[in-house]
Amino acid sequence: MTSTFHSIETAKRSLFTQTTALSTTGHNVANANTEGYSRQKVNMQASIPMEPFAFLHSTTPGQLGTGVEFDSITRVREKFLDDQYRNENTNFGSWSIQRDTLEKLEAIVNEPSDTGFRTVMDNFYKSWSDLSKNPEDVTARRIVKETTLALTDAMNQISRQLDALSQDLDSNIAVKSNEIQGYLGNIANLNSAIVKVESLGDNANDLRDQRDLMTDKLSKIMNVTVTDSPQGYQIQMNGQALVTGGAVQVAVDPAFLNTAYTAGTLTNGEVHGMIKSRDTLVSDYRKQMDDLANTLANGDIQITIPVGSVLPENNPWGLTGEARKIDESFPNPVTVKGFNGLHQIGYSMDGTNTGGLPFFTAAGGGTAITAGNISLNAEILADPNKIATSLRTTDASGTETVIKGNNTLAILIANLKDTPMKTTDGLRNATIGAQFSAIVGQLGVQSQEAARQTSNSEFLVEQVDTRRQSVSGVSLDEEMANMIKFQHAYSASARFMTTYDQLLDKLINSTGMVGR
Description:
The strands form six sheets. Strands 3-4-5-6 form a four-stranded antiparallel beta sheet, with helices on one face. The protein has helices at residues 6-30, 79-109, 117-133, 138-198, 205-221, 254-263, 270-298, 338-343, 378-382, 408-414, 432-472, 476-510; strands at residues 40-46, 68-75, 225-229, 232-237, 240-244, 247-248, 300-303, 334-337, 360-362, 374-376, 393-394, 401-402, 421-422, 429-430. Helix 3 packs antiparallel against helix 10 (408-414). A hairpin with a 6-residue loop joins strand 11 (393-394) and strand 12. The mean pLDDT is 92. The radius of gyration is 41 Å and the shape is rod-shaped. By secondary structure, it is an alpha+beta fold. It contains twelve helices and 14 strands. The relative contact order is 0.13.
């Protein structure tokens, strides 16, 4: 049998449900611009009817409904799009760092330009060509000294910038490790909070949004996989557990990240891009610049010593006496050890007839010449007359004397610009200019590829995020339409309650009055 106040209860349920729907709509509108927020909706359903199926049943025809109620408030979210977003985001993180590193390397190399290393190198060879025209000219010798200093300074500067870039990447890895640890800790805390809230039967929608936002940001830094379990998100990196329930499983620091990269566990994300940039990109270009400097100083080159030249006593071929005078029987061409080897078979203007000094040395007393330590020999720096330019001597007075005006060696050195040099590792045989061009060309191709990959990854991230926002994002137009709909439903329910209240008032206060 229907209760007298049945319809009042029906109206009340409707008012409560529409009020909840309006409040949720207001919550959506308020968070329309909140990062990571997912649209929420109230799930309404018809409440249990007055007379459910049972053994006893009234004779009144039909099953009378009892109105509406809501069973939950849920967020609109699609896990597939979340997983897709995180996969693309981690690719974008790695490539964006590599692109940034390669752009910095391009700025360091600064080619092509009028002020880059190639210009300095051209000026260096040009000064030797000018010196060959008048080997006894003091000004020309000083210009050779200054252009050499400019060349070594350019190499030193490139090396210092590469070291600074490597140190900057190291510092960024340390910063990112702290950021990762923070995200993992927040996710673990949110796991615990969500479990507590949902154990009471409610949906922790806003807490879940915060956890997903933390996970999204983490996915850009490192490759992670996410599994939702009754204990919360389980975060893993290639099978290695990072977060399980409310506990962080690892202490993330630079050592942990470097080990994970070496082991192949860390395969993507910003940190992967940083370590790869430091250990592969920057390290490779530092090695190539070191090889270039060492090749210039000590790389194998083949030269033809002109007939009539006279080698010093301490020559590489062990020739002595009259045998030092080069004739047609000399086995030209011969191999000398780079700029240093060639400079040492000539004579300077220091008043002696001994061979020249090594032109380049390693600053700080090092043995191996690198881009970071290559320098002009300190004795030549102090006295430009020790720059060797001659390959001729005379003994007209019975004493062997250097012909200071001879330019044979200066010409040979000036021609090194177009002479192939074999690198000290034996992998390349090309002029110093060509070897530097190969470095610049490789850098250009790598930078172009990184820019392409970054652009593609960024497009995919934006595309997936757009699809995700179309599902989870707040549309103000849609929310305004919902607001009007729920408002009208609330007003109608209130009007229904008023109407039924009037009916009850008539029943209670206006019936049974006859005969009083």
